[in-house]
């Protein structure tokens, strides 16, 4: 994901030379997945943490210079900026209109993590392409008040900033070490003068529905889960590790339901909540959504097939009933409505797993 606050024209040329192609339609095209934002730019803010402010000059690990094009990495192309935007602590800048333009490669090529250079923002962020889908489903627009309830390590928060200029983006992470990681990520990619406010907090996400009820237009719940993505691409640990993961999996749905209920209470009537995980587990995905819909008055499921599946079905493998043949044959859907979309890894296309569901608060 390229950073729109840096000059990346040379990097863009190299990516194109390596065969990267757009994942999303152009924001000005009629078929764009998310609407093009308005040109409004909010006032100049400061990025701050609820407990401390991390300096841009803090030491980061050094990485090798860019050489080769991470499997299934996704790259977001910003508008060109003057090289002066590489320098921090200078005043407000006429930032380009936000636009999440993403690029993928047809092969499992590798691209190195970006190097840290003193006084410069990092030019790109690597992430699994399926991680963009919850952000697209959230549909953040300029001026929205947004809560990223379980934000670390920060990739989805960065994607939100690439796609829009929210009036407020609250990035919350309850674990203190992951919170510090999140704050460093944001300060590595976002200039101090950006939009109205970006906050990093470390509260228990289950209390937002009480302490900030109805305060947000959009809430993302990228919930803690059994993380089948990590499980699928890791090895070792044996039977003992497997038993531990099964015990954790049994405890997670309760926490996930509490986080989703908190998010629905924190969003205003008419606002939306996107719930996502990176697990294949039905008990952590569809069952969590069903349980909350049955117990939270005013929560209504939003369909994502036309908005997400149809434009992107050639890039992602969606589990039934969201595959193209199911969309064309309603009888294959059965009588049970889907509670969300599930992207499953596929040979040669290892994006996912990623489950996402969008819920609208009606009152």
Report on this model:
This protein is an alpha/beta fold and 363 residues long. Helices cover 28% and strands 15% of the residues. The strands form two sheets. Strands 2, 5, 6, 7, 8, 9, 10, 11 and 12 form a nine-stranded mixed beta sheet that branches. Helix 7 (238-266) packs parallel to helix 8 (286-295). It is globular. Residues 28-73, 75-94 and 322-336 have low confidence and may be disordered.
In brief, what are we looking at here?
This protein has 363 residues and is α/β, with parallel strands linked by helices. The chain has helices spanning 9-17, 132-138, 155-163, 176-189, 208-211, 228-232, 238-266, 286-295, 305-312, 324-328, and strands spanning 21-22, 47-49, 75-76, 102-104, 145-148, 168-172, 198-201, 216-222, 267-277, 299-302, 341-343, 354-361.
Beta-strand level of the residues, as a percent range? 15-25%
Fraction of residues in H or I helices: 25-40%
- N-end to C-end Cα span: 36 Å
The count of helical stretches stands at 10
> Could you give a short account of the major beta sheet?
9 strands, mixed
Residue stretches low in confidence (pLDDT < 50, at least 5 long) are 28-73, 75-94, 322-336
How would you state the average pLDDT, rounded? Answer: 77
Question: Radius of gyration, Cα only, in angstroms?
Answer: 20 Å
Q: How many β-strands, per DSSP? A: 12
Shape label: globular
The SSE order reads: HEEEEHEHEHEHEHHEHEHHEE
Specify the structural class. alpha/beta
């Amino acid at each position: 994901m390229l950073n729109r606050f840096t000059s990346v024209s040379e990097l863009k040329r190299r990516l194109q030379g390596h065969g990267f192609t757009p994942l999303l339609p152009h924001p000005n095209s009629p078929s764009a997945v998310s609407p093009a934002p308005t040109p409004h730019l909010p006032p100049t803010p400061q990025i701050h943490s609820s407990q401390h402010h991390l300096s841009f000059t803090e030491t980061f690990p050094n990485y090798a210079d860019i050489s080769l094009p991470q499997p299934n990495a996704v790259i977001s192309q910003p508008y060109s900026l003057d090289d002066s935007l590489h320098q921090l602590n200078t005043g407000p800048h006429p930032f380009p209109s936000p636009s999440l333009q993403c690029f993928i490669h047809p092969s499992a090529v590798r691209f190195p993590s970006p190097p840290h250079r003193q006084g410069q923002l990092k030019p790109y962020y690597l992430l699994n392409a399926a991680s963009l889908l919850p952000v697209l489903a959230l549909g953040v627009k300029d001026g929205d008040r947004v809560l990223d309830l379980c934000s670390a390590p920060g990739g989805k928060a960065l994607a939100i900033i690439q796609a829009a200029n929210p009036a407020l983006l609250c990035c919350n992470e309850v674990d203190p070490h992951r919170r510090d990681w999140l704050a460093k990520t944001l300060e590595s990619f976002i200039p101090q003068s950006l939009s109205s406010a970006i906050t990093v907090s470390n509260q228990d996400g289950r209390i937002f529905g009480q302490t900030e009820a109805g305060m947000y237009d959009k809430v993302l719940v990228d919930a803690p889960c059994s993380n089948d993505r990590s499980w699928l691409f890791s090895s070792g640990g044996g039977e003992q590790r497997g038993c531990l993961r099964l015990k954790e999996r049994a405890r997670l749905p309760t926490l996930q339901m509490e986080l989703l209920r908190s998010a629905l209470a924190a969003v205003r009537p008419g606002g939306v909540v996107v719930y996502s995980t990176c697990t294949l587990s039905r008990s952590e995905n569809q069952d969590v959504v069903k349980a909350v819909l049955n117990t939270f008055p005013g929560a209504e499921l939003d369909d994502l097939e036309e908005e997400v599946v149809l434009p992107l079905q050639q890039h992602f493998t969606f589990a039934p009933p969201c595959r193209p043949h199911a969309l064309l044959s309603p009888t294959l859907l059965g009588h049970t409505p889907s509670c969300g979309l599930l992207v499953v890894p596929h040979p040669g296309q290892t994006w996912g797993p990623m489950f996402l569901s969008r819920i609208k608060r009606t009152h």
